[in-house]
Amino acid sequence: MKIKVESERIVKAVRKLHGIEMVLENIEDAREALNLILKKKDIFSKDPSGNLKDVIVSSFQEYRTSAVEYRLVFLLEFVFQEHISAESKVAFIKELQDFFNKV
């Protein structure tokens, strides 16, 4: 399952959870920030680490109105354990998206 998240939302989430201002210049920066977010268990109803095998991060630029005005967007692909139900996957992703929408 994949979702897209603007770099600004990831930066705001890390600031809210850890009190630091990260700069996301590339995929490695985003992966590091996402790991910091996922380790905060208080934003999830269940600990996601048992269900999640990996998170694959890629990036692209999304143009709002012209080639000059763009935003960096990260595509997050969640790789779950094989035995995890679709409902559990959706619940985890919904909690994460709700958190990003609140920051």
Structure description:
With 103 residues, the chain is of the alpha+beta class. It has one domain. The protein is built from three helices and three strands. It has a three-stranded antiparallel β-sheet. α1 packs across α2. The protein is globular. The model has no long low-confidence stretch (mean pLDDT 90).
Alpha carbon gyration radius: 14 Å
% residues in beta strands: 25-35%
Number of domains: 1
- Could you estimate the helical fraction of the residues in percent? 25-40%
Characterize the biggest β-sheet.
3 strands, antiparallel
Count of helices?
A: 3
Along the chain, the helix and strand elements come as: EHHEEH
Overall pLDDT score: 90
Strand arrangement in the largest pleated sheet: 1-3-2
- Number of E-type strands: 3
Backbone structural class: alpha+beta
Runs in which pLDDT lies below 50 for 5 or more consecutive residues are none
Shape: globular
Distance between the termini: 22 Å
List keywords for this structure.
103 residues, alpha+beta, three-stranded antiparallel β-sheet, 40% helix
Q: Would you spell out the secondary-structure blueprint of this structure?
A:
Blueprint: E1 2-6, H1 7-18, H2 27-38, E2 52-63, E3 70-80, H3 86-102
Antiparallel strand pairs: 1-3, 2-3
